[in-house]
Records
---
Amino acid sequence: MDATLQAAGAGHLRTATALRRRRRRTDRMARLLAWLATLVALAFLASILVTLLYLGVPGLKPAVFTTVTKAPGSGGGLANAIVGSLVQTGLGTLVGTPIGIMVGTYLAEYAGTSALGNAVRFVSDILLSAPSILIGLFIYQVLVSPLGGFSGWAGAAALAILVIPIVVRTTEDMLRLIPISLREASIALGAPRWRTIVFICYRAALDGLLTGVLLAMARVAGETAPLLFTSLGNSDYSGLGSAMSSVPVTIYQYAASAFDDWVQLAWTGALLITLGVLAINVAARFFIRRR
Amino acid sequence: MDVTASQALHPAEASLPPVPARTPSRGVGDRIFALAAHSAGYFVLILLGSIIVLLFWGGLPAFRAFGPGFLASAAWNPVTERFGALVSVYGTIVSSVLALMMAVPLAFGVAFFLTELAPGWMRRPVGTAIELLAAVPSIIYGMWGFFVLAPAIGHTIKPFLSSTLGQVPGLAVFRAAPGDASIFTASVVLAIMIIPFIAATMRDVFLTVPVIFKESAFGLGCTSWEVMRSIVLPYTRASVVGGIMLGLGRALGETMAVTFVIGNTNRISPSLFAPGNTIASLVALEFPEAEGGSLQLSSLLALGFLLFVISFVVLAISRTLLVQRVRH
């Protein structure tokens, strides 16, 4: 009797130990896989950066910044593409930012949970993730086809549309972080609502707003698809009224070409644009962390 | 305020209708600013509306010429002017879904690592590095995919899969095909590109689980994995699906990276290792060459409209699932 009880107890103990061991093993396996997944993701980033440095740095000569794109074999640079990218990105950000900030202000300060506010929020979120190539098609239909030609203006307009939803998102989020009591204090002092928003809320949220603008700029600086049908590309410097070159489009045209020096330029351009975009991203995170 | 007291003091005013409290303090500046903010809101709505209308308008000649058959036709011939959406829609959906199948487990692993496993000092730098993966321009993914990833897949995964699974009858999808550019390569690049979006969303929603739930489970003796599986995942299920849909939405419309590695062939092949195309890659390649007003241009715009509809539905589902907890 006693002996059988003991045996049964030992059996339970054994299954309990086995169960515990199995649970531990599953847990260890899951942790290991999660570590591996993270390592794999980081390895991809490392591989991209190493490839860019390895293939891009050898072509990094002063001529890249001083000469325009030329026929293969005659040693051109990317000067016109760099200028075109700066102009279109700058203009796109300049146009998109005020609109984005006003939409964000509307959502945070006026809309509340009204139907219109929710609709604007929904549409802005859709625009944030919508395929950028469709924005290029849209601008082609609006500006290129009716006005009879590709232009830097059209490229900048496409980038501006991409800037808006990014700025909307950060503006609304940042304004919502400003305590209501700050607004109440301002209103109580007799300030009208618009002064409260501009001089109290914007000022308090300045770092956050700036972060949004920087992130938007970084995003559009690397965009290729929306420029293909709007500013098209140009082999020389050009004004905003005609087809205009940009770094991403030049990379696209050169990367798959059969000429070694063009491929080299594409890699150097890729290195420049990636370092630029990543630097802006890191700077933006620095701003937001200061808060 | 004591209403009866004020009525007693100002009996004449008491009978007047209540005055909206804010009206007196609202000056011209306020009205202008409010108008500007509201117009900006309307502007966004009009913008999306006009994108849809103009894409449809541009695609109308193609829809008229081919009717519903546009969706079912595999033709794409600028010479005979026969166009259909079947191949590119197939390529878009297959490459995106395949990318999702690869990206979701990895992104879940990353989110699990970042929320539960990583030591404190590691969370921020690793999280930032994953986010930077999303900041790399898509054309860079294209070049890297074309020069590094595609040959690597061609030398390792393709021979392995085609010599094992590809030999099994009925698994023709794994059979080898010539060339490194393929739907499979495109989906690997897409998977890498959408990992950060899915992982960041999952991390954010995992962090919304009340700590007390997790601590109770740990207190009962649960392991990290059991807490993830039985507490965190059930609590965040809807948002996790929303994050996955967000990744799908991103993959469907990705253009430059896909154009570099998919091979750009308008043919449906039984093998995933054969080249194909997607809506976005076809539009990117042929739109600059299409003549203004031609049926080809209109067909490309019609494809753009289709892509917009597909992405819109996916992103709308994603947002509905995510909106209760976090905004993606």
---
Amino acid sequence: MGDSPNEHQRYVMVQKEGGSGVKNIPFQSRIGTKLILGFLIVAVITGIVGYLSLSYSQIIGEKFHLLVFHSLPAINSLKEIKAAALDIEAETENYVFSPDTNKGKVLQEIVNQKSKFNNNLSIYEEFVNKYFPEEIDLNESIHSTWNKFVLYSDQLVQLRQSVPLSSALPPSQLRQALDLENEFQKSEDGLFASIDKAISNEVDEVAGRTSAVDTAIRDSSIVTIFSILISVIAAVAFGLFFARYISKPISNLEQASIEIGKGDYVTACKFLSKTHRSDEIGKLSLEIEKMRQSIESMRTNLDKLVVQRTRELEIKNQALIEKEKELYRANEELIKTELAKEQFMSMVSHELKTPLTPLKMYSDMFLKTKVLGELTDKQKQAMKMMHNNVSKLEMIVSDVMDVYKLDIGKLKLNKKEVWISELVNDNMSELQPLMKEKQIKFESIIDPHASNIAVVCDSKRVSQVIVNLVNNSVDFVPGKGEQIAIKVPTNETYDGVLFTVQDNGIGIPPEKVDNLFKSFYQIDTSITRKHGGTGLGLAICKGIIEAHGGKIWVDKDYINGTSISFSLPVSERSVAEKKNHDRL
Amino acid sequence: MKILLIDDNKEITEVVSYFLENIGISCTVLQDGKEGVEMIKNHNDYDLILLDIAMPYFSGFDVLDELKKEDIIKSRNIMIFTASTVDEKKIYAYGVKGLIRKPISIDDLQEAVERFKP
């Protein structure tokens, strides 16, 4: 598209209010009208050709009529009279020079021929009077010569009748007879001359009329052929013209449509402007032009919209890229921090635990073996205290590391399916010695529904929780004879398996319950100092339980002492197996 | 029974080797990882090798890497001293026979000795 959007405005057609249907096109502009007109013209030309042929036929007919019905009968009658005249001459001669016998017959013959002559002459006269006025003289001539001829014929007959053949005629009568014979011959020549003249005239007439007919036929043929040629040419020309009249604008409209399809609105406009017309095609062109404009404007709007949106998207994209960079940077920082934390953890862990090794080992060696010699009671006592404190220190270091790991989410759990009964009983046996020492009633109550079910947990860590909770209860149980229980009750309310550690001790004051699981929180620091502990235990318990996806809480409704419960995820497999087992 | 102990900490090597000798076990002490690698490669007569993970310059992991190249870890009884609780999987992946957590206890040592007594 070379032209700018404004340049092609030159080609925009004036928009008339679009009509609906062919009714709005004026009659004279319609294609149908023009087509009909064209056909009419061709028909007229053909008609003219026909008419010309017809009129020429008439002319030929006329001429032929003259020939056949005038000239030929005239000639015929002339030929008859000539024949009759010849016959009369012959018979007259015969009468005169033949013997006397059969004369009646001859005379009769002469009479017949005379009558024949007269009939035919009257026919000829009729024709002359009607159709050949130029031959009146000839007719007169024939009449006059005929009269003479007949006269002499009659005279000869009369003469012969009065004189028989055998007798000799006197010389004066003989001369009279010879003169008569001469005159008869002369009149005969005269008659024949005039008849021949008339015949010759008629023959010329016939020739002339025949040639007229030929000419007429020839002319007629030429004109007809010529007219047919013109007619055919006109029809073909009209056909070609009209075809082009229709197909050219259609072709232009097709081109225009193609250009609209390609999006080249300027070229489309050029094509459309070639189809300005006032007929149906013109209407179509108008509508297509409207369509072009509408498509073009939609396209322009669309393009603008696309540009706009693209710009918006680019801006957003830039913002996103910036954010991404920021996030990447932040992540890099986090990773660095994580790494630093890990390294710190590792270092601290190592640095704290390493010095503990000689402490622990030597104190162990003093107390448990004889490699460093025997101790006095006092020494033993002192060493015990050292050993205990090393153990405590070990525990504190471990707790601190646990809390730290929980804090940075690094506590790794080794989750497995563990039978509930196994979990509880193992811890029971571990804690048995302490319970015996403290003389505390220690029992476990596992609901039958939990008997063949497993939980998914890290048993070492969960045992850590249970031991911690039980130890807390030991610390806060007032005296001997009290009881601690580990329960696995039926559970309708919470997700997973419910564990409860209960005691009938002094309980926890309600206002302190909320802070119970926070790091370093101690209910009674005096007791802690007495029994040891960092205040981290419950925080670690919470961390461990929550890392399993469970929850830990104080049972606020339990008033007979302290009850702390936690939930662990159940092993679905064990539940399903139990169901199958129960069914059997 | 012969035990090889590789740890950079003098105090720990002193107390451990003292204890072991007192229960009648000869203990060879090395404080350098590289030396440890050579010793392990060249001598296959130690019933138990105690290797510390956290050593500067050439750590227990470096030792294990070297030994892995020679593929001799499995044919030795190696137990690892570690203070970390997160490297367990990584350590076991080498094919060592066990872990002893720091701080080391006499019980842990005794258990290990019992386990690998010839």
---
Amino acid sequence: MHAPVLQDLHRTLPNEALFQSEEGRRSLERVLGAYSVFDPDVIGYCQSMNVLCGGLLLWLKDEEEVFWTLVSVIHQRVGYYTKTMYAFLVLIGP
Amino acid sequence: MYLEFRALVRRCSLMVDQRVLEDLFAVSQPGLRDHLQIHGVNISMFTVSWLLCMFIEAPFSLNDSLLLWDYLFLFGDEVVFQVALHLLHWNGSKLLSLSSMGDILEFCLRSGIKSSIDIAAMLRSLLDTTLGKGKHSLGLT
């Protein structure tokens, strides 16, 4: 499994009961893992996707629905979520 | 060359939107913007996470952001810009009373911004005034 995904599991909406439980973090891991397989070249995984995914999981419950909603949210905003966070590099850059 | 440029722009659309938001802010609330600029604060320091996380986590509570997402899915990204500008506007007097970069950033990042906002009322007023004009067929009452 993708190391950055694992790193972020504990940081995702830490105040929510769902993500204080092992079960909640496991579903987060499954959905984000599925996404990184689904779209490995363009994004794979980037920080802040975990927050989106966490929010969706709280409301939709069903992991498959969460996955496809996440896909459509991310694909609507091409260029927001990127592997290397170019946008940040440019913002921070000289 | 053109395609490369397109690819670059697409990769940076977050930054582009961020700039658009900055410009809208400068035009609509020049006083507040000058105040922030004097203290070295650029709104992208905290609005990046609003845009990326679609307002989950900060600055709203989860229940409020659920309501916000309904509007977001219905009306599209315009909502993000409108809400961001409104948040800054509604907290304008508080922000103007803060006079150091640290205080301002602390206020914005540690969600001091949310406490005074009734998001349902804010979204309703957005709906009445600006949102979705030109989309008559939605059948909203």
---
Amino acid sequence: MILVNGKPYKGRGKAAIKVNGRPYRRGRKAKQDSGIRRGQQSKRET
Amino acid sequence: MKTERTQIPDLLQIIGGQAHAKRAIEVAAVTGMSIVLIGPPGSGKTMLEAAYRVLAEPFTPDVVEAWPCPCGYLGDLSRACRCRPPAVFRHQARLAAAIEEYQCDVQIEVPAVAYRELRAVGSGEPLAAVRLRILRARAFGEGRPAGGGEELDLDGHRLLEVCEDRLGLSARRLASAKRVARLIADLEENPRIRAAHLAEAVQYSGIGELRR
């Protein structure tokens, strides 16, 4: 096991394609990662 | 050892080598076009993105950063790519989709940098000088209607025909090469697009359409 600061190292993930610094997502994943929850209209509070 | 940190490093000068990529972001920054940076890990894509965002100041362009394949080393001279061909195809299809989604007119290859080039860090053109050229080009192109000033001379038409035949550039890529050539001419404050401008622009249009 690899330890970092005494804790198991989980890796930082990697994205082979990034858009504006974030991993490129399409479809369902894009929706999940958008930060907008189901049934929510937008991130803005109204 | 204590080091002096009185000066903020110049965002362009701290990038070693990559003269081709630096020129490409200069051209794209005139109108803040969306760009794609393709290269292996550690070649300077993220540093170039940071410099680009500063140069494109009034715009908020989309920047796609990508490895050429899932492992990142396809086409690299010093390391072997360990991807299987189907994985490479899948990766390039995703990349093609990203390029299309964000309408990237400028595709830039960012190869790995040799240490020899890194030693010369700090000696390149400062960001301020490049920024000045961009501001002048923007002023030159101001007020021109969209798609205006993109007429080609005979040499220009011939060059694009050759590119279509030999490089397999699609109509979309040819149109984007014309848009980019317009900006290159603006940087020279030239009202006409010449074949030389197009020849440079074609280098930024990627090799045809990626396979989807």
